[in-house]
């Protein structure tokens, strides 16, 4: 069971003799999220519509790039309670669970729907590469040459190029592991919805940043997913259940930044400290923030190892009230993670709308014409996903849980002053 507890940032364990204590009526400034039961950690990756869609995007891109007749991937999966999962065996317990399920081989291809093992590809006229993760064979990438290119491409050269495709697919599996680990820790919608190019690039950037010890500054406008980004980076860095401490600097008591930071750092030991809205700190509090972060960075550099606490920061939006010296300091001590606006990832709007409709009611259906879908994709969303979610919430309320159709969306768009 997930346990979410609020902690005071002025606990006595903070070992600060000058610590200031908050009065009882002031709400705590930090949130601690713990998951004591590690057996809940997601070890398998569900082979759902999102996974299949993203896999096909990768396969089709490579197919067009290399001029292939077909590109497919075969995967071993287990079916339990009607759902297929990619087998990722970690220990003996997983082996026993896998053995109890129905193991089968499936094919995801560029020219056919997801197929069972009985519809195998003809591997005799194809180039086949293994797909391995942590020394475990997950399946094979099978490329079939087109007649026009069979005589012009060296098999060895093509195999080397296709190896990059298998690496990209392995990256997808790792990101799905991170995604579903986050679901177990944080609950629903703890990750971005969609498979757009912008999100795929963002996932790849988070994977790269996970290997760095430098503080990360998350930049994005309201509704772009700054909290999701921080949680994703935390889950990417830590496979164990270690603290993720989130604190909103806008809620801090005036004059108490030093003692707050000391206490937050104590509670985030071996985990992550996420400082939100650092641009909302009063000017007088910035020396304390700078001293704290500079000390943490210098400590990590001196020890030449990962710091005891990973630092992630965010601002309230791209246009902040930070002074130029503060902006320069942040650029020197942190690595930026820039989040796309919803208008930069319009390919995700259909997935988002269907997701938010299901959140409102399992019986809620969305049936829109192509003209309305295109209208939604061209709409300017000032507060990004936050605005889109409110629109669907209003649409669901208008229909009473029934069908969301063109007139309903047009009415809600007009009321939101988008058109």
From TrEMBL:
This is Sigma-54 factor interaction domain-containing protein. GO terms for biological process: regulation of DNA-templated transcription. GO terms for molecular function: ATP binding. Transmembrane segments: none annotated. The keyword Nucleotide-binding applies. Residues 192-397 form the Sigma-54 factor interaction domain. It comes from Cellvibrio polysaccharolyticus. It holds the Pfam family AAA_lid_14. Gene3D superfamilies: 1.10.8.60, P-loop containing nucleotide triphosphate hydrolases. Keywords: ATP-binding, Nucleotide-binding.
């Amino acid at each position: 069971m997930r346990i979410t507890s609020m902690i005071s940032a002025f606990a006595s364990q903070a070992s600060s003799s000058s610590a200031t204590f908050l009065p009882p009526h002031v709400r705590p400034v930090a949130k601690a999220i713990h998951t004591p039961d590690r057996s809940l950690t997601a070890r398998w990756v569900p082979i759902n519509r999102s996974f299949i869609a993203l896999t096909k995007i990768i396969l089709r891109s490579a197919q067009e790039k290399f001029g292939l007749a077909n590109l497919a991937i075969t995967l071993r999966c287990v079916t339990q309670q009607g759902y297929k999962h990619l087998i990722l065996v970690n220990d003996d317990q997983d082996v026993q669970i896998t053995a109890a399920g129905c193991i089968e081989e499936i094919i995801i291809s560029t020219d056919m729907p997801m197929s069972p093992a009985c519809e195998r590809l003809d591997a005799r006229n194809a180039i086949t590469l293994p797909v391995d993760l942590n020394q475990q064979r997950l399946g094979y990438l099978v490329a079939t040459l087109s007649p026009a290119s069979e005589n012009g491409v060296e098999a060895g050269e093509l195999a080397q190029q296709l190896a990059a495709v298998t690496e990209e697919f392995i990256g997808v599996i790792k990101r799905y592991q991170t995604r579903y680990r986050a679901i177990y820790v944080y609950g629903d919608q703890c990750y971005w919805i969609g498979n757009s190019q912008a999100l795929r690039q963002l996932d790849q950037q988070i994977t790269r940043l996970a290997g760095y010890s430098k503080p990360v500054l998350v930049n994005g406008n309201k509704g772009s997913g700054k909290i999701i980004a921080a949680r994703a980076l935390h889950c990417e860095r830590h496979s164990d259940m270690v603290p993720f401490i989130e604190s909103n600097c806008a809620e801090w008591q005036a004059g108490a930044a030093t003692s707050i930071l000391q206490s937050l750092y104590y509670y985030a030991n071996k985990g992550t400290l996420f400082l939100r809205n650092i641009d909302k700190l009063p000017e007088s509090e910035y020396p304390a923030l700078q001293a704290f972060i500079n000390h943490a960075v210098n400590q990590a550099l001196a020890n030449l190892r990962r710091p005891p606490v990973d630092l992630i920061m965010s601002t309230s939006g791209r246009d902040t009230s930070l002074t130029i010296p503060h902006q320069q300091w942040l650029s020197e001590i942190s690595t930026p993670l820039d989040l796309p606006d919803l208008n930069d990832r319009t390919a995700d709007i259909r997935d988002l709308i269907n997701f938010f409709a299901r959140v409102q009611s399992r019986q809620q259906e969305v049936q829109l014409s192509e003209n309305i879908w295109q209208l939604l994709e061209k709409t300017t969303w000032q507060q990004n996903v936050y605005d889109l979610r409110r629109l669907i919430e209003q649409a669901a309320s208008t229909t009473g849980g029934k069908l969301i159709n063109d007139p309903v969306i047009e009415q809600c768009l007009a009321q939101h002053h988008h058109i």
